[in-house]
Amino acid sequence: MQRRGALFSVPGGGRKMAAGDLGELLVPHMPTIRVPRSGDRVYKNECAFSYDSPNSEGGLYVCMNTFLAFGREHVERHFRKTGQSVYMHLKRHVREKVRGASGGALPKRRNSKIFLDLDTDDDLNSDDYEYEDEAKLVIFPDHYEIALPNIEELPALVTIACDAVLSSKSPYRKQDPDTWENELPVSRYANNLAQLDSGVRIPPSGWKCARCDLRENLWLNLTDGSVLCGKWFFDSSGGNGHALEHYRDTGYPLAVKLGTITPDGADVYSFQEEEPVLDPQLAKHLAHFGIDMLHMQGTENRLQDNDMKPRISEWEVIQESGTKLKPMYGPGYTGLKNLGNSCYLSSVMQAIFSIPEFQRAYVGNLPRIFDYSPLDPTQDFNTQMTKLGHGLLSGQYSKPPMKSELIEQVMKEEYKPQQNGISPRMFKAFVSKSHPEFSSNRQQDAQEFFLHLVNLVERNRIGSENPSDVFRFLVEDRIQCCQSRKVRYTERVGYVMQLPVAMEAAVNKDELIAYELTRREAEANRRPLPELVRAKIPFSACLQAFSEPDNVDDFWSSALQAKSAGVKTSRFASFPEYLVVQIKKFTFGLDWVPKKFDVSIDMPDLLNISHLRARGLQPGEEELPDISPPIVIPDDSKDRLMNQLIDPSDIDESSVMQLAEMGFPLEACRKAVYFTGNMGAEVAFNWIIVHMEEPDFAEPLTVPMYGGAGASVFGATGLDNQPPEEIVAIITSMGFQRNQAMQALRATNNNLERALDWIFSHPEFEEDSDSVIEMENNANANIISEAKPEGPRIKDGPGMYELFAFISHMGTSTMSGHYVCHIKKEGRWVIYNDHKVCASERPPKDLGYIYFYRRVPS
């Protein structure tokens, strides 16, 4: 590093100190200056309260004690709250490169003036601009500035601390090392790869391994064009290893995975180097085999050439490709940069912050939330929600390009980049923390993330204000015993209306049959596939399928005291302020691989579901007796139950999938089967009904550690040795009474195994329900009064709605593909495609996955 001559002025006026005064100036603050230790998160790319960075006009201030970073607008708040005075100010300057005699930029040289680990602006051409980083210490409140490096004059501790901060890596890599892909090396074979003139041309589909019948996990050898299957360790999808055998036979080193080729690159593996690599010449190498990389989109088992199917490709229609879209700028038109399969999060958050209740709850309370944020605001949900909402709605990070006549004048001095789009890296790191899926870099289901977000909003609500109340509604489930004709009514809380895809109601069945025959013939003969024919499903058919009765498997009739046929219908006991409708496009094949229905549904702009209002018990209906089904417990049930709890890998997946197909979150289904000891879908269903209103209902399964120490895993409060609800549910699911379970657990310090022994050894137990209930109510009095004063909070009203947003998915399953969001603002539709925000010309309302409706005032 070299000393920076220019000092960036700050509010109050930066004051440069003489060399002899530096040591004396820093003496009072030495106890507050720390050297980052292993495990410390050093934020030097992003402000904790805003999306300011060293690229911003005011730069970034890093606290030399907490290593949190703040923009110019927020650093004073941190100083006032903590009294921390010493900050490192980081600033990146961007200038136009000096032009050569021919008018082009001078040849690139290694730039020793860059030392910050920052992403360069995607809108800047690095051949035309140069960067210079500047670091200095700033001492508050007088804004004394000390240029760095300054080894001779600064105390050794300060110098070491400054070097450690500047050399630290991203805090997100430090928090989640397993979720970040390592930077791939460039293969040493890429630039001089020999390619045989064998005349091989790779078709856009219909591939098969040359040595076996596999049609997935196929790799194209970039030397001779052989298509062969991979091994499981390439991408966890299995294979017979023929690609590796081919390398051993021929020595041809590089292969690309078919189905991953896009204009941005592809998965390339080097057999010789035994690792994934980068191939800078990939476009050239693919062109040798007739593949135009710049016109390809990756799919699961074929390449898709954009020029082959204009208008019909799902990717093109949803993203409105081929149409010149007008960019939108200003408040409410800010995009979110893709962090690598983070589009599911971006689409949901764009829709969420288009809702006034969320805008008011977070952005409307910004001063209060920021002022009362904890000492580490990066780990506070409300702070990060407010930060994201302000970033999206303020317009501060969505400004139109400067007029051309001003650019030349500005470039003579220094380029001041306009930041368009914000990076939700800090937000994603926090909201996905401890979640095995959302914390990964893999694609996820936007609907599951929506429910995860609602859960976080519920758990972190600000006082009595809870904006997620606008989504909540009550569902009335009516189950009727087909033999006795008696009924049972129950209510549960819902946040999403899940509509089945009524494939049997397609209005173009003849076209679909003809297309399928042609497609199979083309695949068999390795010819290009025909133009896609998409099933056209009337929305009314989907709504009808939603309202029709479902058969209940293994229904136990309390009227007959035996299993019987049963049917269930669901209706709305209340209508929410905002109705979220999910089209159940995803299902599971016979091989348990997720699949997607590629259908077109004529979603209405105005939706009336008033006819789905629940009516409750009707005259002439007789209720089923309130008797729990007997559960036959095998002799080894206790041991089997304990083994099940210890090893969750043995969960009965068939029961899980039965519950998931009813529309319950997958993680909740896994917990239900787990906590009921693999005793079947019916018992697990009862567990779900009891626990579905709990805040962590859809959270991932956490394996309990039983005994006194482990009871806290279930959220035990410690009040009067209150037994955790999960353990109580396990015992009651075995047929024992709740008060019996409560007393057994209290007598054994909440140890499940000992509690079961206690129950079996106390057959003389007499139910003293009054005393047990009184103890339980005393222990939970405060919790009940605060959390559920009047049951679930709902905002009932008329069942008439209008469409204002929808999220669309492109790809073959929720584990792959891409999401975009369309939102109607100021009377026109706008498409939010990651960081790009444009006026929509043809919003594909028929291809959406999740739809957002708002209630129409009556």
TrEMBL record:
Subcellular location: Cytoplasm
Residue intervals of the UBA domain: 650-691, 722-762
A GO term for molecular function: cysteine-type endopeptidase activity
Database matches in CDD domains: Peptidase_C19B, UBA1_UBP13, UBA2_UBP5
Residues involved in Zn(2+) binding: 209, 212, 229, 242
Residue positions of the active site: 343, 818
Pfam families named in the record: UBA, UCH, zf-UBP, zf-UBP_var
EC primary class: hydrolase
Gene3D superfamilies for the chain: Cysteine proteinases, DNA helicase RuvA subunit, C-terminal domain, Zinc/RING finger domain, C3HC4 (zinc finger)
EC numbers, comma separated: 3.4.19.12
SMART domains found in the cross-reference section: UBA (SM00165), ZnF_UBP (SM00290)
Swiss-Prot/TrEMBL keywords: Autophagy, Cytoplasm, Hydrolase, Isopeptide bond, Metal-binding, Phosphoprotein, Protease, Repeat, Thiol protease, Ubl conjugation, Ubl conjugation pathway, Zinc, Zinc-finger
Enzymatic reactions: Thiol-dependent hydrolysis of ester, thioester, amide, peptide and isopeptide bonds formed by the C-terminal Gly of ubiquitin (a 76-residue protein attached to proteins as an intracellular targeting signal)
Residue ranges of domain UBP-type in the record: 185-293
Domain named USP: residues: 334-856
GO biological process terms on file: autophagy; cell population proliferation; maintenance of unfolded protein; positive regulation of ERAD pathway; protein K29-linked deubiquitination; protein K6-linked deubiquitination; protein K63-linked deubiquitination; protein stabilization
Cross-referenced PROSITE patterns: UBA, USP_1, USP_2, USP_3, ZF_UBP
Annotated Gene Ontology cellular component terms: cytoplasm
Subunit architecture: Interacts with UFD1. Interacts (via UBA domains) with SIAH2 (when ubiquitinated). Interacts with BAG6; the interaction is direct and may mediate UBL4A deubiquitination. Interacts (via UBA 2 domain) with AMFR; the interaction is direct. Interacts with UBL4A; may be indirect via BAG6. Interacts with NEDD4.
Matches recorded under PANTHER family: UBIQUITIN CARBOXYL-TERMINAL HYDROLASE, UBIQUITIN CARBOXYL-TERMINAL HYDROLASE 13
Function: Deubiquitinating enzyme that removes conjugated ubiquitin from specific proteins to regulate different cellular processes.
Family according to the record: Belongs to the peptidase C19 family.
Name used for this protein in its record: Ubiquitin carboxyl-terminal hydrolase
Organism of provenance: Nannospalax galili (Northern Israeli blind subterranean mole rat)
Gene: Usp13
